[in-house]
């Protein structure tokens, strides 16, 4: 190796893109996309030496938990299948999900299948997303979704309305038929 002044260059993932030119590399405002292998290349003008790649894993706390319901309506009828999906905008894996119904723990996992719902499924739903960062597991982060209000109405309401409409329609048809028949009967001299 030569005796000239040393120059430093920092690179990520074997890329030739330059991240810095000092003997130390400082990364500011990092995110999970900054995870990867970092290397320092040192040159004395005659030759280049490369450091052993250093693996950097950026751990990101969970944030912005949201619930996506299927169907998208917040009002459903009994026996309708309902699925709720919880997701986070950011957060390093593993992320765990806990479902709350009216503030009480209900289930675990990113998807809550309510199946054929009944009136007892009405109420508010929330999901709690959690991840642990660090080797010791003492740094636990939680993100609570906004509440989703679900209203389950009895299936019979639709049938009652339909029966009421069809009954009224039948009555009107019969009334018109009686009036027409009476008119023809009087008109023909009955």
From TrEMBL:
Residue stretches spanning the membrane: 161-185
UniProt xrefs under Pfam families: Ig_3
A molecular function GO annotation: CD4 receptor binding
InterPro entries: Ig-like_dom, Ig-like_dom_sf, Ig-like_fold, Ig_sub, Ig_sub2
One GO process term, biological-process aspect: regulation of B cell proliferation
Swiss-Prot/TrEMBL keywords: Membrane, Transmembrane, Transmembrane helix
Full protein name: Ig-like domain-containing protein
Protein's organism: Zosterops borbonicus
């Amino acid at each position: 190796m030569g005796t000239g002044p040393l120059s430093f260059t920092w690179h990520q993932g074997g890329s030739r893109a330059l991240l810095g030119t000092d003997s130390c590399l400082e990364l500011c405002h990092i995110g999970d996309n900054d995870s990867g292998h970092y290397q320092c290349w040192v040159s004395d003008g005659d030759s280049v030496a490369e450091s052993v790649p250093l693996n950097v894993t950026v751990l990101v706390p969970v944030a912005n938990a949201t619930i996506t319901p299927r169907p998208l309506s917040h009002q459903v009828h009994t026996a309708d299948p309902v699925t709720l999906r919880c997701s986070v905008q950011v957060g390093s894996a593993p992320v765990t999900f806990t479902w709350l119904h009216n503030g009480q723990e209900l289930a675990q996992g990113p998807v809550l299948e309510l199946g054929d719902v009944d009136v007892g499924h009405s109420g508010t739903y929330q999901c709690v997303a959690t991840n642990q960062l660090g080797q010791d597991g003492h740094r636990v982060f939680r993100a609570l979704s906004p509440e989703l209000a679900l209203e389950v109405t009895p299936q019979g309401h639709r049938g009652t309305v339909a029966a009421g409409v069809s009954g009224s329609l039948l009555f009107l048809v019969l009334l018109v038929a009686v009036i027409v028949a009476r008119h023809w009967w009087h008109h023909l001299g009955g």
